[in-house]
Design goal:
- The two termini are about 30 Å apart.
- A hairpin with an 8-residue loop joins strand 3 and strand 4.
- This protein is mostly beta strands.
- The protein is globular, with a radius of gyration of 21 Å.
- Helices cover about 5% and strands about 45% of the residues.
């Protein structure tokens, strides 16, 4: 019976294809001052920028490919409550995310902004301050099942910052949430725009610890301790709507930061831990970035927020004229629990309050499937 159920689910929801294993190649060990490295980018030839996390001094550090620290720049009006990542914009400005939030209870989240370090002549500089909250957070902390407001990953893209949560829910639901807000100083709200299901296994295997976008803005990486997820073929900010390939690494270490050295090369740093010493590594990506779930579908679904509490916004994009489509909702047992007739290329609001909390699947008539979580 179990084999039959598995076969039915395989037919209904499709299958995952395992990509090849990637082997990070060590470039250098990192010195004691960067033993807790949490961010990484480049600011020039053989010039890398990083920082450390909670409780350390509010400094960014420039180092070379031998792991030698060349400069330390203090942000003298900042504190390092829990610095977890950094990114840069097209003008070289640096954004440092003080948004580590293990217990999902912080109400003093910050992103510090400084100019290109090559233009800073002194050993200290003031930073612009972006203070923010999350659009969907109402309790500090929320219940254990909703503690998904820790951040360790973000990048700059088209004048906005995109943040990706490090899931700490109990029980673990396997989603990273994507937030967007303008890349400027002020008191802002990070808007929840999408989410991605990394996997419902253990925290160490499915947490997102770093993120980056390539220079042309058409490829995104999310980093984990033992794998990374590569997204391509998307449009605009719809990073999770294109191709996605999961690449396992050959080992589990405390990988904390990533950037694209080129379209086919990643640079990553790992923190000193029981899994390995602090260091910087290069990862070569395959020429092909893998297969996309639902690659044969002629449609594209936008569904948010996901996870959802009561109502979900749903848009089905088609290349042809607007058509009436049957949209089916299945539970994890493969039972169809709801059908809607919806017009394509139109935003619809779906009321899901009648359904119990759990995992569901939206399925289109051509076989396209999208997983959603009802909270």
């Amino acid at each position: 019976m179990k084999k039959l159920l598995f076969a039915l689910l395989f037919i209904l929801f499709g299958s995952a294809i395992q990509a090849q294993t990637l082997t990070p190649v060590k470039i250098c060990d990192l010195p004691a001052d960067l033993a807790e490295t949490s961010g990484l980018t480049t600011i020039g030839i053989n010039q890398f920028l990083s920082h450390t996390d909670s409780g350390n001094e509010p400094k960014v550090m420039v180092f070379d490919s031998l792991g030698v620290i060349k400069r330390k720049i203090k942000l003298y009006n900042a504190t390092n409550i829990d610095w977890e990542d950094l990114t840069k914009d097209k003008n070289g400005n640096i954004y440092v995310g003080d948004f580590g939030n293990n217990n999902s209870d912080r109400n003093n989240l910050r992103i510090y902004i400084i100019p290109d370090p090559k233009t800073i002549t002194k050993d200290s500089t003031p930073a612009g301050i972006l203070s923010f909250t999350y659009s969907d957070q109402k309790a500090f902390p929320p219940a254990a099942a909703y503690q998904n407001y820790d951040m360790e990953a973000f990048f700059w893209f088209n004048d906005s910052l995109y943040l990706f949560s490090k899931n700490r829910t109990t029980p673990y639901n396997g989603y990273t949430k994507c937030y967007q807000m303008p890349a400027r100083t002020g008191v802002l709200t990070a808007k929840l725009i999408d989410s991605f299901y990394t996997g419902n296994g253990t925290y160490l295997n499915y947490s997102v610890t770093g993120a980056a976008i390539n220079s042309t803005g058409n490829k995104v990486v999310l980093l984990g301790y033992d794998k990374c997820w590569i997204f391509s073929g998307f449009t605009g900010r719809n990073f999770f709507k294109g191709k996605v390939t999961t690449y396992p690494f050959n080992s589990l270490t405390q990988k904390e930061a990533v950037y694209f050295e080129s379209d086919l090369k990643l640079m990553i740093t790992q923190e000193n831990s029981i899994f390995g010493n602090a260091g910087m590594f290069r990862v070569n990506l395959p020429l092909q970035t893998g297969l996309m779930n639902n690659i044969s579908s002629q449609y594209e679904i936008e569904a948010y927020p996901n996870p959802v509490e009561e109502t979900m916004q749903l848009l089905i994009r088609t290349k042809s004229a607007n058509i009436v489509m049957d949209i089916m909702l299945f539970d994890t047992a493969g039972k169809k629990v709801k059908t809607w007739e919806l017009l394509s290329n139109t935003m619809h609001e779906l009321d899901l309050h009648e359904f119990a909390s759990g995992t569901y699947f939206i399925k289109l008539t051509d076989g396209y499937v999208q997983k959603i979580i009802k909270e």
